[in-house]
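Design a sequence for this backbone.
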């Protein structure tokens, strides 16, 4: 059920927040044992909030799942890592949580994720496996895999995720739900545990486009506590969402329909584009020539920032402390050795290397230059088109453990989502039918809409039109 429908039911007196919270907790017990989307939840706190819910508020009494890297007062915030399991409880609310609470929402449940948001399958969670509710042998995508899986499974009405290189859009695509990454700076990062600060954004995973707009409306806006927050007014996203696509110029980048993309994904996305054309959209071929360098650029920049951000997890400032260290250096060594999983260590090593003297210019500075070229590609493209459409991921969800020795395959599959983060533009994933893949006859496919800086309004409008199409 969507948030909008639930809100109507509250207002009509058909159900109450207390009833819904209790039912949700039961559903988590019966269904989530199989899916594993929730790391924890606190029903007592939620029931107290439900009893006091003000239904006249825009999100009054609506429960929202929270990715476990967004601080919520009094709750755990493990980031999917062993490092933070034992002794970290948030002592403050992230700005997005303050905003949700002020509008009446009830943050409920901590959603599983790849450790420190590094990954595309939620397989890098050090705490538990999450499966894809559309086929439990498969990954839900990642890193916001718990958020996407819970919405797809009906164990959450909506959830927050974070997206550094695709971590909202790709799991949304794999699970058949809606996922929105806002413009960099549109939503405050204050209280989000940083992975790569120049790329991270918080956004919603929902069952409908209207719900995505509702949550974006709630969490967007200037925050003096985040120095990269944009001090510009937030438009009313409801105003243009239903206006349709007549006359809208849609760019289709040739670099996004490349070798390696699964035929079913390509077919569904092309069918979506043709149907939008039939509704009056103008389809224009475009080129984003630096796309092929996006993955390499991202993995240099994101790892560099991660190696710096994660230095605070040392067993002294944050994280579990090793038991019997010989001295302070040994304490750091042991705590980090035991605390971090192998993917996180790989990124820290890579990031430290590209920032080290003698290599800095060859890797980090160079990556920043390519980042500027990728941004310029989009600027040029958006002079001729209003939005860009592409696939979200080259294939539907793969099987769990099928990439264990080959991390590079997962890195390469980020090709369509990473450019939006590098350029700081908004992008979203909307369900685009299903396809047969690798022994499964029906797996969700996502279509991606990319819009210019602060173009969330037109992006949602196209997304809403896509939601109404009839797709394979
Ligand atoms: N898959 C990408 C990575 O592993 C993106 C992660 C994200 O957006 N948090 O870095």
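Sequence:
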């Amino acid at each position: 059920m969507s948030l909008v429908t639930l809100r109507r039911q509250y207002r009509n007196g058909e159900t109450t927040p207390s009833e819904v919270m209790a039912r949700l907790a039961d559903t988590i017990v019966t269904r989530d044992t199989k899916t594993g989307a929730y790391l924890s939840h606190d029903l007592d706190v939620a029931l107290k909030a439900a009893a006091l819910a003000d239904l006249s508020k825009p999100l009054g009494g609506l429960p929202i799942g929270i990715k476990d890297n967004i601080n919520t007062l009094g709750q755990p915030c493990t980031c999917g890592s062993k490092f933070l399991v034992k002794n970290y409880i948030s002592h403050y609310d992230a700005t997005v949580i303050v905003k949700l609470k002020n509008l009446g929402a009830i943050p409920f449940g901590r959603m599983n994720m790849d450790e420190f948001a590094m990954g595309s399958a939620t397989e890098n969670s050090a705490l538990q496996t999450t499966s894809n509710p559309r086929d439990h042998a498969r990954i839900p995508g990642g890193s916001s895999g718990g958020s996407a899986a819970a919405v797809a499974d009906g164990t959450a009405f909506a959830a927050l995720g974070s997206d550094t290189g695709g971590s909202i859009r790709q799991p949304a695509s794999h699970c058949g739900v809606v996922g929105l990454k806002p413009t960099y700076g549109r939503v405050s990062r204050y209280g989000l545990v940083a992975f790569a600060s120049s790329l991270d954004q918080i956004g919603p995973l929902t069952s409908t486009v209207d719900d995505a707009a509702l949550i974006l409306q709630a969490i967007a806006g200037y925050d003096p506590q985040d120095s990269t927050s944009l001090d510009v007014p937030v438009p009313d996203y409801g105003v243009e969402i239903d206006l349709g696509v007549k006359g809208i110029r849609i760019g289709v980048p040739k670099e996004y329909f490349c070798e390696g993309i699964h035929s079913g994904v390509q077919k569904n996305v092309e069918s979506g584009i043709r149907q939008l054309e039939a509704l009056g959209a103008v389809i224009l071929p475009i080129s984003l020539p630096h796309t092929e360098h996006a993955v390499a650029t991202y993995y240099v920049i994101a790892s560099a920032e991660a190696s710096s951000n994660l230095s605070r997890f040392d067993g002294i400032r944050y994280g579990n402390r090793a038991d019997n260290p010989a001295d302070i250096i040994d304490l750091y060594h042991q705590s980090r050795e035991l605390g971090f999983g192998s993917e996180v260590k790989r990124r820290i090593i890579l990031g430290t290397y590209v920032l080290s003297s003698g290599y800095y210019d060859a890797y980090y500075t160079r990556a920043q230059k390519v980042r500027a070229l990728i941004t310029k590609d989009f600027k040029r493209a958006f002079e001729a088109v209003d939005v860009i459409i592409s696939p979200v991921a080259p294939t539907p969800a793969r099987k769990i453990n099928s990439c264990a020795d080959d991390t590079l395959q997962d890195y390469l599959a980020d090709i369509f989502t990473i450019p939006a983060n590098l350029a700081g533009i908004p992008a979203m994933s909307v369900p685009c039918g299903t396809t047969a893949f690798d022994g499964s006859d029906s797996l969700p496919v996502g279509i991606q809409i990319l819009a210019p800086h602060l173009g969330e309004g037109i992006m949602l409008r196209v997304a809403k039109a896509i939601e109404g199409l009839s797709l394979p």
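Residues 3-219 form a domain with the Amidase signature (AS) enzymes fold (CATH 3.90.1300.10).
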